[in-house]
Design goal:
By secondary structure, this protein is of the alpha/beta class. 49% of the residues lie in helices and 13% in strands. It contains 21 helices and 15 strands. Helix 7 crosses helix 8. The chain binds one RNA strand of 76 nucleotides through helix 7, strand 10, helix 16, helix 19 and helix 20.
RNA sequence: GCCCCCGUAGCUCAGGGGAUAGAGCAGUUGCCUUCUAAGCAAUUGGCCGUAGGUUCGAAUCCUACCGGGGGUGCCA
């Protein structure tokens, strides 16, 4: 049990006791209302319950606080409880209570801070990136990749059952346009005088794809009809783009449980019906479809949307929204408790209609859209739009090539998703103190170095720790302020995970990692480890090892590596 | 017009209704013959955009306004 939970139970008991013997005039027991004081002078934990319940209890907060303190049961957790200011109850923890964190971390290892989520909320579908397979991913996709991946890791640690999904938009006219773009380039490269039509994909990568086809298969497609050639090139280009995306994301450490193909929504089953047909049917049964101006509309204004939305255009084609409706209907049918989509801020106008369709099916609130603000790419403070190599938009792949996975992930994650990011390539590349990722990794590497030194050999850190740090080390000698501060911070971990998961806010872990690293560096400076008398050395090694475990775990949840040497 | 995000130190940003608003960077100054100086310590720096409201208590919640960014297709 976490220290906070123990303390909460003790305070709850005191409140109940004060109420039952009439000292406190309240009908129901208020919550313990514990928080970490900003200033450590005010104790390890503080309760604001006295001030919160002053009105209901018709008493002044300090009196209430006194009543609660007087009823605190015997325990080994609290060293002192004093009343301060307008009615805070400031608790100081017994050293032994704080020290128990070290044993807990070293025992639970990568399970430290794991939580549980109740059935009925647990199964979550998380869809993110979903870049079109018609071109390379850009910087924004990099942000969603990092955010989605880390969110999944953090939510899993908090106890959610997260299913990660990438929606592949491989249906629709854009694919034909893409195929045609490659075909035109192909013919041009073979010396034919054909013009690239308007609204085609003009990027250099399209030429690369066409050249690749020529390199592998030569003139095999030269004599086909335009339609046949377009269809063939569409398939080749699609495979190539999808492979590129998968390869890059794997290298970036982001994997999916499912790559969901949009075209599958149009595949007919034994009854000759597709997922799209069925989704439309269900919506019609619910009575939210109508015909007007030759088109079929979804009455989304019923649920607060600005205007109704077209599903079937007057020319008989389906809109993109119809695909999305079928896709989400499919997700609902697959039995998730909750659906989360990560979108760029430029898609925010699309949210209302999607929420509307969920509500129309009787699942209000089931879809949650996490909007991420966009990324501005800079180099030395100057905006960069163009890649030096291609003269086009800098791609995500180029960014990872230049900056590296760890620094890219850390910087993308270090800001709240509703904060716009100015990503400066040159700053990201710096391997010095201005780059927080190295500060955190350095703390981890430093601990590993201490373990190596203490053991006298170069085995991996886990092995060294198991060998040289006794599991039952006497921790009572750890009473230095920088030792206690480190333990307090580690005790905050479970709560951090629960909050970061709840708020879909993995960026909080970057701040935590920096704080923990900073506290370790202070401890390292103030408290020597190797060469102290054995009891002290063992206890400090245990503390350092626990810090190593929590740092590595935090970095892992961010998808950032924890190097043992730097 | 309507919708979303942002406005806190010179810069980039934290701040789950609580005490004297924090961190990193940048600036200044110290600390390596001892476990990694990619480190530590000290110091400079604030009408929390403005005005109201709710509250015992507001940077935090509500309303209006000001400033910056984005969105508002029978496109995909």
């Amino acid at each position: 049990m976490q220290i906070r939970e123990q303390l909460e139970a003790i305070v709850d008991a005191a409140i109940v006791a004060a109420i039952s013997d009439g000292t406190l005039a309240l009908e129901a027991a208020p919550a313990a209302a514990l928080e970490r004081p900003r200033d450590p002078e005010n104790g390890d934990w503080a309760s604001t319950v006295a001030m919160r319940s002053a009105k209901l209890a018709h008493a002044n907060p300090r009196q209430i606080a006194e009543a609660i303190v007087a009823h605190l049961p015997e325990n080994e957790t609290i060293k002192s409880a004093e009343i301060a200011g307008p009615g805070f109850i400031n608790f100081r923890l017994a050293d032994a209570a704080l020290q128990s964190v070290i044993a807990a971390v070293r025992e639970q290892r990568s399970d430290y801070g794991r939580g549980t989520i109740a059935e009925g909320e647990r199964k979550v579908n998380l869809e993110y990136i979903s870049a079109n397979p018609t071109g390379p991913m850009h910087i924004g996709h990099g942000r969603w990749a990092t955010l989605g991946d880390s969110m999944a890791r953090v939510m899993r640690h908090a106890g959610y059952d997260v299913y990660e999904e990438f929606y592949v938009n491989d249906h629709g006219t854009q694919m034909d346009v893409f195929g045609n773009s490659i075909a035109v380039r192909y013919m041009q490269l073979l010396g034919h005088d054909v013009q690239m039509p308007e609204q085609c994909y003009g990027g250099a990568y399209v030429v690369d794809i066409a050249q690749g086809i020529i390199d592998r298969e030569g003139r095999a497609y030269e004599d086909m009809s335009d339609d046949e050639r377009m269809a063939a090139m569409r398939e080749i280009g699609y495979r190539e783009m999808l492979d590129d995306q998968r390869t890059l994301l794997e290298r970036f450490g982001t994997t999916f449980d499912c790559w969901f193909s949009e075209s599958n929504l149009y595949a007919e089953d034994a009854d000759g019906k597709s997922a799209v047909d069925r989704a439309l049917e269900v919506m019609r049964e619910h009575g939210y479809l109508y015909e007007a101006e030759g088109a079929t509309w979804f009455r989304s204004t019923e649920f607060g949307d600005d205007k109704d939305r077209v599903l079937i255009k007057a020319n008989g084609e389906l809109t993109y929204f119809t695909s999305d409706m079928a896709y989400h209907y499919d997700k609902v049918c697959r039995g998730f408790d909750h659906l989360i989509n990560i979108w760029g801020a430029d898609h925010h106008g699309y949210i209302k209609r999607c929420e509307a369709m969920m509500e129309a099916w009787g699942h209000p609130g089931m879809l949650e859209v996490v909007l991420g603000q966009l990324v501005n790419l800079l180099r030395n403070g100057e905006p960069v739009r163009m890649s030096k190599r291609t003269g086009e938009m800098v791609t995500f792949a180029e960014l990872v090539d230049e900056v590296g996975v760890d620094a890219t992930r850390y910087l993308m994650l270090s800001r709240s998703s509703d904060q716009m990011i100015d990503f400066d390539i040159e700053v990201a590349k710096k391997q010095d103190a201005s780059n927080p990722v190295y500060y955190v990794q350095y703390a981890h590497a430093r601990i590993c170095s201490v373990l190596r030194k203490a053991a006298g050999d170069d085995a991996p850190a886990d092995e060294l720790a198991a060998r040289i740090v006794p599991a039952d080390a006497d921790l009572s000698v750890l009473t230095h302020e920088s030792e206690l501060a480190l333990m307090r911070k580690m005790d905050d971990f479970a709560e951090l995970i629960a909050l970061a998961a709840r708020d879909r806010a993995p960026y909080r872990l970057t701040h935590y990692a920096q704080e923990l690293a900073s506290l370790f560096h202070q401890f390292y400076t103030n408290c020597h480890i190797i060469g102290e008398e054995p009891a002290v050395q063992n206890a400090r090694l245990a503390l350092a090892d626990a810090t190593r475990i929590v740092l590595a775990l935090t970095l892992d949840l961010l998808g950032v590596s924890a190097p043992e040497r730097m």
